[in-house]
Amino acid sequence: MPTTTTVDSIDAKILAALTEEPRATVIALADKTRLSRNTVQARLGELEKQGALHSFEHRIDPGALGYPLTASIPTSVIQRKLGQIADALDGVPEVAEVHGLSGVADLLVHVVARDADDLYRIAGRILDIDGVEQTTTSLVMRKLVDYRVTPLLTPLANSS
Fold first, then answer.
1. 3-state SS string over 69-112?
2. 69 in Cβ contact with 120 (< 8 Å)
3. How many CB atoms lie within 10 A of CB 35?
4. Which of 55, 99, 142, 144 is deepest in the core (most CB within 10 A)?
5. What is the mean pLDDT of the chain?
6. Which residues partner with 70 through β-bridges?
């Protein structure tokens, strides 16, 4: 679920500094942003609590864990079984992320796999979930633009 938090220019400065140096301490972020340590600490805590900061997991490359293949699986489901399907997908370790969609497919399931045979097994496991009607598996050949928010943060951070 997207966060309803609106980041202001002070939050944006902190997040931009954190993006530049993800392992920075609160004191280092305070120095970089010219804010007090207490302000940085409080703002980071509030951003985490409100869901504006996500988990560290986004930075771990599945390939380093032995899962070099990534695939997207648009999935059509029986809507009234959506909760059960989401729970079942959550139980598949190779499912990295699931988005609910509008349009032709109901869900977009992102998975990782060890190889083509493993991907075939995972896709079959998803198709076997009660309420899943149809899947189409597309192998990700190359990531052309990595996940990013810096282009959104920069203008906001510079607005004050």
1. EEEEEEEEECHHHHHHHHHHHHCCCCEEEEEECCCCCCEEEEEE
2. no
3. 17
4. 99
5. 93
6. 112
Which one-letter DSSP state was computed for residue 134?
A: E
Give the C-alpha separation, 7 to 5, whole Å: 6
**Nearest-angstrom CA–CA distance, 97 and 140:** 14
Helix (H, G, I), strand (E, B) or coil at 64: helix
Neighbours of 16 (CB within 10 A): 19
Find where tokens 């979930």 sit. 129
For residue 146, give both structure tokens: 């990595």
Contact 108, 94 (CB under 8 A): no
- Which pLDDT does position 155 carry in this prediction? 92
Residues facing residue 72 across a β-bridge: 110, 138
Q: Which pTM was predicted?
A: 0.81
Q: How many CB atoms lie within 10 A of CB 14?
A: 26
Q: What is the Rg, in whole angstroms, of the alpha carbon atoms belonging to the chain?
A: 19
- pLDDT tens profile 85-136: 999 999 999 999 999 999 999 999 999 999 999 999 999 999 999 999 999 9
DSSP run (H or E) holding 132: strand 132-135
